[in-house]
Amino acid sequence: MAGLPVVDISGFATGAAPDPGRDAVAAEVDRICRDTGFFLAAGHGVRPETRAAMFAASREFFALPAAAKNALAISRSTCHRGYFGIAAETLDERTTGDLKEGLDTGGEHGPDHPEVLAGTPTFGPNQLPDLPGFRQAWSAYRAEAVEAAERVQRALARSLGLPDDHLLTMAGGEVMYHLRLLHYPPQRHARPAPGQLGCGEHTDYGTVTLLADDGVGGLEVMRRDGTWIRVAVPEDLLVVNLGDLMAIWTNDRWVSNPHRVVNPADTDRYSIPLFVTPPYRARITCLPSCLAPGAEPRYAPQVAGEYLTSRLDATHPYRNPLLAARQAATPPNDG
Fold this sequence. Notes:
CATH superfamily: B-lactam Antibiotic, Isopenicillin N Synthase, Chain
Strand order of the largest sheet: 1-2-10-7-12-5-4-3
Shape: globular
Radius of gyration: 19 Å
């Protein structure tokens, strides 16, 4: 196992008094983002009891019978919220479906929310299980994880010489926060086909991801030199990594590194990532500070929400009949 650098982001808490130490933290974040694009966050504000309650609720949900979980199937949702089963997501198109199951959630958007009224994709109601205490655990964890994400975004903005709240106040709507609960069954229960992983090699889609991990292991990260390292995640820290839109925005000054998950052989693995994407209509284009004089940007501008939905279409068969047909033709080996 390899250790990632640890960065204390407590100085970027909402409402915190100005701290001269922020510049040093921002400089360290910039150095790390130029190298691996992954670090461990301390001072994130997610309380141990909140984290423990969310993992307990996640384990209880995934232990339900298949019929109960499938009653919340993501294919029933108009906004990509709900349950998906083993091998229903394919993050590496060179392989068969990932050996994991999950519950995708987002903000609570009722029928009168402006984005729902406008028909904006990814905005709408969640499908949460009707388990005692689940919604309370989910709501508490989401709120604290979003605060952690805002701390990270302030540090990232300062690292780029921007106002601390720049990423939180971009035009185009509200910042999108999608929280996933994931379960990776042990290999003895879901034997992998050749090349099949718990989570195939991929990059994340948005700007930044914050991950809570149960400590079992299995996360592997690719360095910029192409080598893979196995990452140990201490219980009191969150993994932070950058996504594609941040790499586009910074013209590859910062790395959207490939990563993957290998299912443990003899135990279940649980994780809780929070994915951060800029406002749906935000236009992501190369920052002037990340472009050398006379150079051209490496990437065409992207509209954040359109990029997100295009990637979801490519990885979830239920959103694409061609992918669904391919998956039906090659059923997973479920042991």
